[in-house]
Design brief:
Blueprint (H helix, E strand, L loop, with lengths): L1 H22 L1 H6 L11 H29 L5 H4 L13 H9 L3
Length: 104
């Protein structure tokens, strides 16, 4: 009887560890909030509200494809001084986006 109880306890412990490992960090990362301190474009602000950092990256990747059609030299580094973290913008970023690509 003691062996059966011990086996049940061990099985429960292992099941808990498995669940915590599978559902833990990956789930939290999927909805991680945007890190930018100030978001100046509506399309990016909407993406951040809807799906956090991942959604914002997806929207920016799509926008970059469209912008490259107009100017092949444009890249993430055209507007951002660092690609990662809170993605700080260069001083000319918003001016370039509005003048070259009509972003609001």
């Amino acid at each position: 009887m003691v062996k059966l109880g011990l086996a049940a306890l061990v099985a429960t412990f292992l099941a808990t560890l498995t669940f915590a490992t599978v559902a833990g960090p990956g789930t939290a990362d999927a909805a991680a909030p945007c890190k930018a301190k100030k978001i100046e474009t509506k399309f990016l602000a909407d993406a951040c509200k809807a799906g956090g950092q991942k959604a914002a990256k997806d929207v920016m990747k799509k926008a970059m494809k469209d912008w490259k059609k107009k100017d092949a030299s444009v890249s993430c580094a055209s507007c951002h001084s660092k690609v990662g973290g809170d993605y700080p913008k260069k001083p000319n970023a918003m001016k370039d986006l509005t003048e070259k690509f009509g972003v609001k």
